[in-house]
Amino acid sequence: MVNEEMGYKAHALILPYPLQGHINPMLQFSKRLVSKGVKATLANTIAINKSMHSDPTSPVDIETISDGFDEGGFSQAESTEVYLSTLESVGAQTLADLIKKLKDLGRPVNVLIYDGFLPWALDVAKQFGLLGVVFFTQPCTVNNIYYHVQRSILPLPLAEPTVSLPGLPLLQASETPSFVSDSGSYPGFHHLVVNQFRNIDEADWVLYNNFHKLEEEVLDWMAKRWKLRTIGPTVPSMYLDKRIEDDKDYGINLFKPDSSACMNWLHDKPSGSVVYVSFGSLAELGVEQMEELAWGLKGTKRYFLWVVRAAEQSKLPGNFIEETSEKGLVVAWSPQLEVLSHEAVGCFLTHCGFNSVLEALSLGVPLVAMPHWSDQPTNAKYVEDVWKMGIRARPDEKGIVRREVVDLCVREVMEGAKAKEIKDNARKWKKLSKEAIDEGGTSDRNIDEFVATLVKS
């Protein structure tokens, strides 16, 4: 259905799972669609919408559905299982209501692009005769593992110390996602990630937030099964191809941003001298781990910028902030893209959430990987052994990464024997990620092909 007379070629409704790390890549993809002449409407939950600081100049429309917990979202539900089942039942109904509402307003939708975590949305799309497109925010490698679990090809609990799957290097059991290696942990989330594949065979397109060179083998294997295309990295355009004007950040924050403290502090630091430390918006470190990390950073004798959420700051050792004030800055929030693109930053100590990895890769920043759970152990394996742009800080038998290991890993990445190779590879991936999304690159051509399909639908 072509809507040229209304000023756009097609209308895409985008439905992310209600977490910042899922909203951001889908919002960025929406901006890419708008730049290609497609109208994009992002549907957040009412609870997320209330807590969001969104950009009023965004080219993407924002609408809402309900997850059944309009006051507090996930934190209002009594358990993960209750939240997810209510999100499905109430979400499906309110999504259908939204599709009808947009039609009544004269802005009919012709494609629903839904987060892989929300497979029930495909059933709603089909009910309305819309194209149903699944969007994965985690790497293809990780999803290949979940696919093999869902199809019972990889039985759980894992019987062997290693896992061998098509398109992937041989993985230690501990290098698989935590919902696979420790399959009894977090049963609600285990069901969520595995269930992504229950109806994928009915999806019209499968989109991945990565680019072809990043996961070539596994992408080629999966592309034989579904109409799969890479459309990333979904990092704001000003950090990559600069073709979308004023696209400097994600434009939606669940935390009130104030970037001045970080950036002012970074400005007078020498090039490549700062260790940036952030574990994303979800990870919670135990007190012992926080202490070891704190003294490890102090031990490096390097400048460090450490993001510790306000709720976590009580876990810092007493007097740590005062004792390290000459070398370190601890903040509750940081403008991560601005920080990673600053020439003073020499490495990024990260939990290895895929968005953080993609950002570092797109900006050419070497990594020290300290994975926590979910897809992070697998991402960390790739950072060290496949993409070779960082090293893993390995925990001891108690699961704690000790201060000596933190110190050693930071030194290794910034000045050790492997530092040159790691920095060269980081620069290589920066170049390849920009090429992929720039005019005529693999991801750019895939987006053009996708838009052409929408115009015909």
Automatic annotation (TrEMBL):
Matching InterPro entries: UDP_glucos_trans, UDP_glycos_trans_CS
Record keywords: Glycosyltransferase, Transferase
Superkingdom classification of source: Eukaryota
Family listed: Belongs to the UDP-glycosyltransferase family.
Top enzyme class: transferase
GO MF, any single term: quercetin 3-O-glucosyltransferase activity
Protein's UniProt name: Glycosyltransferase
PROSITE patterns tied to this protein: UDPGT
UniProt record, GO biological process: anthocyanin-containing compound biosynthetic process; monocarboxylic acid metabolic process
Catalytic activity: an anthocyanidin + UDP-alpha-D-glucose + H(+) = an anthocyanidin 3-O-beta-D-glucoside + UDP
Pfam families: UDPGT
Associated pathway: Pigment biosynthesis; anthocyanin biosynthesis
